[in-house]
Amino acid sequence: MNRLLQCLLAVFFCSPAIAAEPLPSWNDSPSRKAIVDFVERVANQDSPDHVAASQRIATFDNDGTLWSEQPVYFQLSFAIDRVKSMASENPQWISTEPFKSAIAGDIQGVMASGKEGLVQIFAASHANMTADEFSDSVRHWLETAKHPQTGKRYHEMVYQPMLELLEYLRENDFKTFIVSGGGVDFMRVFAEQTYGIPPEQVVGSSVAAKFEMVEGVPTIVKLAQNPFVDDKEGKPVAIYQHIGRRPLLAGGNSDGDLQMLQYTTIPRDQADTTPRLGLIVHHTDAEREWAYDRESHIGKLNEAWSQANQRGWVVVDMKRDWKQIHPVRK
Amino acid sequence: MNRLLQCLLAVFFCSPAIAAEPLPSWNDSPSRKAIVDFVERVANQDSPDHVAASQRIATFDNDGTLWSEQPVYFQLSFAIDRVKSMASENPQWISTEPFKSAIAGDIQGVMASGKEGLVQIFAASHANMTADEFSDSVRHWLETAKHPQTGKRYHEMVYQPMLELLEYLRENDFKTFIVSGGGVDFMRVFAEQTYGIPPEQVVGSSVAAKFEMVEGVPTIVKLAQNPFVDDKEGKPVAIYQHIGRRPLLAGGNSDGDLQMLQYTTIPRDQADTTPRLGLIVHHTDAEREWAYDRESHIGKLNEAWSQANQRGWVVVDMKRDWKQIHPVRK
Ligand SMILES: [Ca+2]
Ligand SMILES: [Ca+2]
């Protein structure tokens, strides 16, 4: 079949792939060295710590780890924009909170409506519609919406060094997954094109769905039921349920990733000597991005940071370790 | 890295791979021809119906499609054997149904306890234990238990022609998944070694799980809560939730696969002209395996069979189409 072509292409591309230095947007720091050392240690055939390719599972949080998350989670911006665009079909919203604030673009007002208000905003923008309607709305939003402070498209606010890390891991036969508190259906719209991570390797928060034949057409409908929150203890559970094996490497940026980092890196017993890597992206760059950690309302990094030293997790200092934050627009 | 080695190996193995005829255990029948024609149509670079490799998703039911399912689903045999082995720790079972029947190896007695009885058997053998305890128990069972009629190990009762189909699809850059009513944690124990399907590509029925640190060790515990049944309407929902895109090919053997076959093959609108293949394994071989369909309690094939002609699904006749059923023991 195409195998011959594949072989020829593989040979053709061999030399440049060997020559290229990995992680070009990373400074030559201890963080970079720890990552490269780890990957070589598990991937090199001759290493005493070599790990079979099938076991090379890497899981990454998304918000604050692969893309920015300030001033609010991007998915909340989507939800609010979506409510705005649905306002004309829902005239009652104009006088009812939290919709009133959402339509006015008043994020503080939406936040003031508390958890219940947020649930209403998410239900209105994420459920009781077909899967196709939802993904179309996300796609449209990504193509049109701009971040209020940078003016960039939201999917342009991914981290260039993390894109390189994903690619470097895949070159070394890692299978890369997203395991994020973000909505799985939301992330799947852009994860393949943006991160090179196909839909089936995106794990996230979800709501129930149902199947029905609508005028002879098979249809999936998203329901406002049985929410699963892929955060904190939910992350190792989701990894178990969806991936079915323990990662070799996990990366996050907040206390929401604590249990995933523990699940990944803590040895199960004395015999469990396979090397594992935990990685925390620390937001330290107020100039090029944002700086926040222990006291932040979004992406709070406190307990996980405190455990990092004891657990041997690599804490990436964005300001010090990264030459570049977001990709340069072509 | 290993890329150079990969290239050399790829070149080395090129010629034999091209030369080998696919599906050697399949007779040269219309079913085989339909499969090969379809795969060439979507995989050949020059075909007008060429489909990008990333879209080549194939989903297969397990019981009755990839391995046998008579006289009872193999997972029920596991559950009953498991109850037996736990009987000494649960002395009250000896006088209580359905456990009494299970311990006596009386499957009819267990079945007579109805759905409630089965739920008790499954809860006792599948929940309230750690994930590792459960997978160890499945592994032990596979290594020791024998099918009551064939005397084979259960995982030896897979279908050789389907193993070849999985392999043929993967050679053509399909990503192969199991989407089965069987328990996901049960199937994952053997799916990689038996079918070449890694845990993350196994989708099945499940129960809730929780994460906890037990004496400093990260632990997943299976709970007898929130069962998800990956059957009938549950299959397209599970495909949506877990895989996140529509398969190009789906294979099943019973009415439990009807909605998966519909979801996979029915065009969404006029513009939806991508070729899709639906495949039904029809159990027609009472001599080499079992023969059953419209009236069977296990693997009932009625409505899906009735729709096959109209929908263009390939109905594989095991007796006529397969040279061999189970692999020859080495
Ligand atoms: Ca995060
Ligand atoms: Ca079946």
From TrEMBL, chains A, B:
Its EC number is 3.1.3.3. Residues 1-19 form the signal peptide. One of its GO terms (cellular component) is cytoplasm. Pathway: Amino-acid biosynthesis; L-serine biosynthesis; L-serine from 3-phospho-D-glycerate: step 3/3. It catalyses: O-phospho-L-serine + H2O = L-serine + phosphate; O-phospho-D-serine + H2O = D-serine + phosphate. GO terms for molecular function: L-phosphoserine phosphatase activity; magnesium ion binding. Its cofactor is Mg(2+). Keywords: Amino-acid biosynthesis, Hydrolase, Magnesium, Metal-binding, Serine biosynthesis, Signal. This is phosphoserine phosphatase.
